[in-house]
Design brief:
mainly alpha; 6 helices; three-stranded antiparallel beta sheet; 3 strands
Length: about 160
């Protein structure tokens, strides 16, 4: 641990835990995007296909919420994947105003290739980090997410008063 940077909450902004989290998130995205270049995909596109393969056809709104991007942006991502034949839109049988997005057979094949890339990269990212360390990190990150959701909720509640 002595060779690692000590990120303290009272350090300058570029050494704080939050800054390290943001920098790490950017690097993770960059690493995935670089590995997905041979498939002409980025992490958002790969995540969208993977999500639908795992959970089945879903609405654009659900995809936007799950992937944490805007509804207009998700529409552009779906358009691009649909042009390439990896997904299709179909009207929702219960609500004609809603479109459900489904993965095509070629999209399923692509998802398998993405899964292979994902497995290799995750193993590389986790090198030297034990299971207990990953579990502790997961706990801390989940707690940070809960705290942030509370802050955002309280901010919105305060705005309405």
């Amino acid at each position: 641990m002595s060779s690692l940077t000590n990120n303290e909450l009272d350090s300058p902004p570029w050494l704080r835990v939050e800054s390290t989290l943001m920098a790490t998130a950017r690097l993770v995205r960059d690493a995935f995007d670089a590995r997905l270049v041979p498939l002409d995909l980025n992490l958002t596109q790969a995540s969208l296909i993977g999500y639908i393969v795992e959970f089945g056809a879903t609405t654009q709104t659900q995809l936007a919420d799950r992937l944490g991007i805007g509804r207009a942006s998700i529409g552009s991502v779906i358009d691009r994947l649909q042009e390439r034949g990896f997904v299709e839109r179909h009207p929702d049988p219960n609500d004609r105003r809603v479109w459900r997005v489904e993965v095509t057979e070629s999209g399923r094949e692509l998802a398998g290739r993405v899964r292979d890339i994902d497995e290799v990269l995750r193993a590389e990212l986790r090198r030297g980090i034990g299971r207990e360390e990953r579990q502790a990190l997961s706990w801390v990150l989940t707690r940070l997410q809960q705290n942030l959701q509370s802050v955002i909720l309280n901010q919105h509640t305060g705005d309405q008063q």
